[in-house]
Amino acid sequence: MGTVFNIQHFSVNDGRGIRTVVFLKGCPLRCAWCANPESQKRSPEMGWTKGECIGCGECRKKLEALSCCFKDDRLYWNRSASFDPDRVRKVCPSGAFHVIGKEMTADEVLDEVLKDRAFYETSGGGITLSGGEPLMQPDFACEILQKAAAAGIHRTIETCGYASGENYERVVSLVDELIADVKLMDPDKHKVWTGRSNEPIIDNLRRAREAYPDLPINVRTPVIPGVNDTEEEIAEILEFTKEIGADYELLRYHRLGEPKYESLNRSYPMGDRELPAETFRKLQGLLQLEN
Ligand code: SF4
Ligand code: SF4
């Protein structure tokens, strides 16, 4: 069994062709700009959607262990308390208070993925394992990928790369395409903004290239205001991508994840930062100069 927090059909942004993206729960990093904060905790957790709450108070009365209470029109609860997901589902009549993360077997995941097989055949797509960080569940990730390989499906992984060399190697040996985040080259700065050094990430990528010289590797950098939005930072990563023979892509910072923090009872760590369109255009120009 593994923990999945979403399965997205018909994605065209997570590898070649039309893809089914399986999001595994858990991430070793804590990027301040994370747009999927619900992915970070390894175990299932609770979320609350204000717009769906009918104010019946059942959660407060019946889920004592979670110590639910309303304040300023918002639901608060004890995020570290354990809970029974089935009980929560029965208690909240509208589904506003909901469980994020579902225990599934690799066969159940594959059954869902194979529903899209016809689209893979016409578009060259397949399955993409994403997260969170799929390498947080290495056995589960390997089992899904092995089953997908046996079914003849193209396999991609999207990873932050923070994992033991052994687990990285096991999972990468089973994919046809690797999409890897490199957010910063400076290990200390990386630690400040994500909670961990980038050394294992860089080492794993170098080793993957050595072991699989023909593997398509696509490095992505989310451009974050005040973190890595300078020509120096991006040029340094660009140099690294050339060293390992990877394609390189910049992703523009957005605030789409902000409401999710409220839904998880957390505050948004990026405050009111924005990335000007002009800054992003200038940085993209660096990549075009290379082509
Ligand atoms: S690596 Fe991705 S999922 Fe993990 S914290 Fe950073 S942005 Fe979020
Ligand atoms: S049980 Fe659900 S709908 Fe009722 S108050 Fe709690 S969150 Fe709102």
TrEMBL record:
SUPFAM superfamilies (UniProt xref): 4Fe-4S ferredoxins, Radical SAM enzymes
Database matches in Gene3D superfamilies: Aldolase class I
Domain Radical SAM core: 13-290
InterPro entries cross-referenced by the UniProt entry: Aldolase_TIM, BssD/PflA/YjjW, Organic_radical-activating, Organic_radical_activase, Radical_activat_CS, rSAM, rSAM_sf
Keywords in alphabetical order: 4Fe-4S, Iron, Iron-sulfur, Metal-binding, Oxidoreductase, S-adenosyl-L-methionine
Record-linked Pfam families: Radical_SAM
Cofactor requirements of the protein: [4Fe-4S] cluster
Annotated PROSITE patterns: RADICAL_ACTIVATING, RADICAL_SAM
Molecular function terms from GO: 4 iron, 4 sulfur cluster binding; metal ion binding; oxidoreductase activity
Superkingdom in the source lineage: Bacteria
PANTHER family: PYRUVATE FORMATE-LYASE 2-ACTIVATING ENZYME (PTHR30352:SF4), PYRUVATE FORMATE-LYASE-ACTIVATING ENZYME (PTHR30352)
Family per record: Belongs to the organic radical-activating enzymes family.
NCBIfam families documented for this protein: PFLE_PFLC (TIGR02494)
Protein name, as recorded: Glycyl-radical enzyme activator family protein
Organism: Eubacterium cellulosolvens (strain ATCC 43171 / JCM 9499 / 6) (Cillobacterium cellulosolvens)
